[in-house]
Write a structure and sequence with these properties.
Radius of gyration: 20 Å
Oligomer: single chain
CATH superfamily of the largest domain: Dehydroquinate synthase-like - alpha domain
Bound molecules: nicotinamide-adenine-dinucleotide, zinc ion
Number of helices: 14
Strand content: 15-25%
Distance between the termini: 48 Å
């Protein structure tokens, strides 16, 4: 096992550590030992991830410490983030006699993290939760911050809770088996942190494009750690999304959500964020926050990473504006965006004129 990086998420008595390494899945048994007594552990994963043995390695490492482990697998993909799948898991937890001294561990992407976390938050009024994210998107975004939940048929992430995990263990090795489009979707979020929140990260990314494109483990470890650190800092300042700080993580997202809905979610989230970030940069340029050099640098950066920058066919600008007015994060139908003001900095802008948007879309 190579050198580990530990990022602390400071949330008072809900504080926890994110451990980032390579080949460190089997380290989970000793990580969890700090939280004894543990009556049993439920590992939840999906049917793609189980194929790569990550969940088995986690289960074996825990079983070696003498704890009873149950391994549960659900269908892969967003289709599992439903109340039906949650209910099946609740029933299974009951049958397996899971109690409030048990721990539920999600091993998988953001779907398994959100679903497993939601089940942990609700079963027996809450059992302890641990995350082992295996997609780039989950490692840099969804596993940090404590939001867990499921979808309603007409509204994503509509039912959920805040539940901070006991800890997060990230094994960079798992990224090697990720399908290319999923890897790029994760990069869409990575780029967001660099452009909107941290110029140092942007420079690290810009000078390591080739290594990122071949998934070099050393650089990925550095990048994932940096993204976790940035998100952890923001979450520590605004855990429950009340002060407006956490909303800055939504750079590119108002546009992205409207594109995802119109594509019927065929467009992956991080790819939609990539396009949405370019739209936000264009809007910022129109409003005088950044210059053309900024926009061009961002576009060529996205392109070098193979990320999309153009609005796909079939996206209607009027519908996009309507959807953006009613985005979950908007208030009173106002058009609201996180816009860049320079490299690594951004601000929330309320009440954007829809006439300006016409030129962007
Ligand atoms: N809670 C949050 O703060 C937050 C933030 C962002 C996104 N999300 C949620 O995250 C979800 C998206 O997450 P995602 O992009 O990770 O999707 P996902 O969980 O569906 O994973 C994508 C695909 O990759 C497969 N996979 C996972 N790890 C793999 C690996 N190592 N090798 C090969 N295949 C692997 C999965 O089986 C799946 O088919 C959405 O539901 C979104 O709402 C939550
Ligand atoms: Zn996102």
């Amino acid at each position: 096992m190579s050198d580990l990086q530990i990022i602390s998420v400071s949330l008072g008595n809900r504080s926890y550590d994110i451990e980032i390494g390579s080949e460190n899945l089997e380290h989970i048994g000793s990580f969890l030992a700090a939280f004894k007594p543990i009556s049993s552990v439920v590992v939840v994963t999906d049917e793609n991830v189980i194929h790569y043995d990550y969940a088995h390695q986690v289960a074996e490492s825990i079983a070696e410490t003498g704890i009873d482990v149950h391994l549960l697998s659900v269908a892969a993909g967003e289709q599992s983030k439903t109340v039906e799948t949650a209910a099946t898991l609740w029933e299974t937890l009951l049958e397996e006699k899971i109690d409030r001294k048990s721990v539920l561990i999600s091993v998988g992407g953001g779907v398994i993290g959100d679903l497993g976390g939601f089940v942990a938050a609700t079963f027996a009024r809450g059992i302890r939760f641990f995350q082992v994210p295996t997609t780039l998107l989950a490692q840099v975004d969804s596993s940090v911050g404590g939001k867990v939940g499921i979808d309603l048929p007409k509204a994503k992430n509509m039912v959920g809770a805040f539940l901070q995990p006991l800890g997060v263990l990230i094994d960079i090795k798992t990224l090697q088996t990720l399908p290319e489009t999923q890897y790029q979707s994760g990069l869409g979020e990575v780029v967001k942190y660099g452009v909107a929140l941290n110029a140092g990260l942007f420079q690290l990314l810009e000078t390591n494009i080739e290594k990122i494109n071949v998934r070099d483990s050393q650089i990925l470890k550095q990048i994932v750690a940096e993204c976790c650190r940035i998100k952890a800092t923001i979450v520590a300042e605004d855990e429950f999304e009340t002060t407006g700080r956490r909303v800055l993580l939504n750079y590119g997202h108002t546009f992205a959500h409207a594109f995802e809905i119109q594509s019927d979610f065929a467009l992956l989230h991080g790819l939609a964020v990539s396009i949405g970030s370019i739209c936000a940069a264009r809007l910022a340029m129109r409003m005088g926050f950044v210059d053309e050099i900024f926009l061009k640098r961002q576009i060529s950066f996205h392109q070098a990473l193979g990320l999309p920058t153009e609005i796909p066919d079939g996206i209607d600008w009027l519908q996009t504006i309507e959807l953006m007015r009613h985005d979950k994060k908007s208030e009173f139908g106002k058009l609201r965006f996180v816009l860049p003001t320079g490299l690594g900095s951004c601000r929330l802008v309320d009440n954007v004129d829809s006439q300006i948007l016409k030129h962007i879309l």
